[in-house]
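Re: duplicated header lines in exported structure tokens

Our pipeline writes sequence and tokens for each protein into one text file. With two proteins the header for the second block appears twice in some exports. Here is an export where it did not happen, for reference. First protein block:
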Amino acid sequence: MDRLRAFEVFVTVVNRGGFARAAELLGTSPANVTRYVHELEAHLGTRLLNRTSRTLSLTEGGETLYARCKSILDDVAETEGLVSSATVEPRGRLRINAPVSFGIQYLAPLWPGFMRKYPGIELDVALIDRVVDIVDEGYDLAIRISRAGSTSHAARKLATSQNILCASPDYLTRCGLPAVPADLMDHRCIGYTYAATGDEWELIDRGGKAHPVKVDCHMHTNNGDTARAAALAGEGLIWQPTFLIGDDLRAGRLVRVLPEYRLPEIDILAIYPSRRHLSARVRVMIDFLVEAFGGVAPWDGARAG
């Protein structure tokens, strides 16, 4: 069995939604397409497709194989292009993971320009706030917001953002303004579920000394926009990055608390599996993002706080 051809046939059947339509696209007979799929299932020892007279759907094993086969075929097409042409146009699917709020506000406006520049690349963007395993979950690239960077993957820095401790004017009028970090223990706080230090907030004074404070969080959320909305409604103190709350600080909707202290800054990183064998799709995306952010964070064009 020609496994690469079998992969191509299998992917085409799934994409076209049937054996006859796949055969038409591939220029062969439905019987030949059926034979390839049967041989592939026999070789792997598992059913890949659920077939009835009217419907065609992937089994769990079929879903896994489809994702990997599509990636393999994209890489083969790109490799052929590298050999056959001196002016390579990157092609194939590019799977990207990014945090929800950052992805909507700062990345979504960039995608149309990227697609116009690289029409051969098919973008598949998933917005998820949890830290994904880009290899196990099949991503080519992840945008990660991190204090520590990545020790297991290659990374390229796109920008930096401050973290700011703040609350609404209404909340501070009702509950008072903290004077020292320990005062935070007497305030209502809104916690971020994925914070590395949990409900222990670490503030750093001008001498560089850290002041960890265990706060009382009456609300937790895994999404920065949700924390922001609660703070704007006067529900308590939050710390969030300036890319999310910078406009609120400048407009006075939120007020910086304990401005003589700072929280650790965070980096916006493009994370990818390895610098070796980096595909053209990933390379042009990283270069595009670096150029788009230009080394100057748009959210800090006017300094917050």
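Second protein block, exported in the same file:
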Amino acid sequence: MAVLITAGATRNPLDAVRLLTARSSGRTGVGIARDLLARGVKVHLLGSAEACLRAPDIQSEEYGSTRDLMARMETWVRANPSGSVVHACAVGDYEMAETQTAKIPSGLDRLVLELVRTPKIADRIRGWGLMGDLVTFKAASPETTNDELVQIASKQRTRTGSTRVFANVLGRLTHGVAIVSEQTEWFDERNAAVARLVEHLAATEEAAG
């Protein structure tokens, strides 16, 4: 058995030199990978450039854009349908409507870009044949209440077929973190929630092995 973990943020090109990305260092995904390895679980890390730099001791594969990440994930899942997936990456929701192979000129007083939605990777993972655990992540907007967070995470769990959804509110990373499955577990500290998630995953892998 094996676990695929995505970490970091996608980088969707705007032109030949510029990128559209998110604020995500990959620290959480790398930490989960390292903790599972310490428990004897086989791990494959799909990480951004920054995430891979944080994980020189982990078998890793670097991704770039949202579509690149999706292709690499699909390849792994189809080769490891009995494995599990922890999808902790901050996936870019938008990409350029038309690829800009040249550099957009500098010095423009105003620049208007047309973006279109990217594929929703989390919604496709089960369709690739994954039979093991699927953990997805949800970061809700700052005004979200705890009750609303659970509702949002529950809808995501149903839509994606996730075993669990790791949910938090942006700006409240140190408290009010929830792991939503059939029941909801609340944690005051993000580290405690990550530790609990690792326990769930390790137990699943131990039972399957």
